[in-house]
Design brief:
Layout lengths: L1 H6 L1 H16 L1 H4 L14 H28 L1 H9 L8 H20 L8 H13 L5 H19 L2 H15 L16 H24 L5 H21 L6 H17 L38 H6 L1
Helix pairs in contact: 2-4, 2-8, 4-5, 4-8, 6-10, 6-11, 6-12, 7-11, 8-9, 8-11, 9-10, 10-11, 10-12
Length: 305
Amino acid sequence: MRELVVRSPLIAFFVLAFAGSWILWSPMWLTAGGIGVIPVELPVGALMLVNQLGLFGGPFASALVVTRVVGGPGAVRRLLGRLVRFRAPWWCWLVAVLAVPLCIGAFALAGRSVTVTVPIIVQLAIMAVVYVLGGPLQEEIGWRGFALPRLQERFHPAAAALVLGVVHAVWHAPLFLVRDWDTPHGDVWDYVAYLGMTVALAVVLAWVTNAAGGSLVPAVLGHNGVNWSLTAAALLTGTAGSVIPAALGLGVLAVIALVVTRGRLGEPRVAAGGGPSAAGRAPSTASLGGRHEVPTLRVEESIRR
């Protein structure tokens, strides 16, 4: 089994991520709130717990397990260290923290009546922090931390982002069966928009992750900005949310990323093993195109160490 994982770490990661999440999410999509195979209605607290188990048991655990098998304990430390690496070009923070929610908000709030009250402001402020633990932190260690560098070793950066965006969307498939999942999923257009959103998000997050030398903090914040913006738009307008504004807003950012970098999304030189260089240092400066020279550390070199 170990030889299979070492030979095909990317495939192993995706298989474990899908299996872990789909199995641990099964109490959500098999019960009355899902397809109804099990005639039990789960309370909200139980749904939240099951969701967290699926997140941690999916891309998060899969990334750590496969990284440990392929690169040893040192590789795991380097991968986790990317979650607390805060050195990144200033514009990466601007994109992740401001541009993502503003672009989504521009489409979500256009032509709509907005109600702003103190309770809503407080709720939105709390959500901005809490939502980080609602998916972005658990997911990004796997998607942008483990999978992205390896996909970029095989494909053109834009193609790698496309593949990862599609995989990310399909990974959510069981949740579309859950009645109480907070992402709009009422008709086929919601599914199409969701796919467009995850692909565009993959492009944007690949851009900031590459430019940040492999730091996952901008990716976590950008991912969080999407989740927060969707809920914020629904609260401010008092209407049912939609992922279409997110797909459009992120689509604009994705086009900008592709144009600015000429499709290279930062010309990545990020190590698949968990760091941008042997010393584990992120570049101190980078242009919008992310043209920093960081030597690529191949998986085989990680194994030899």
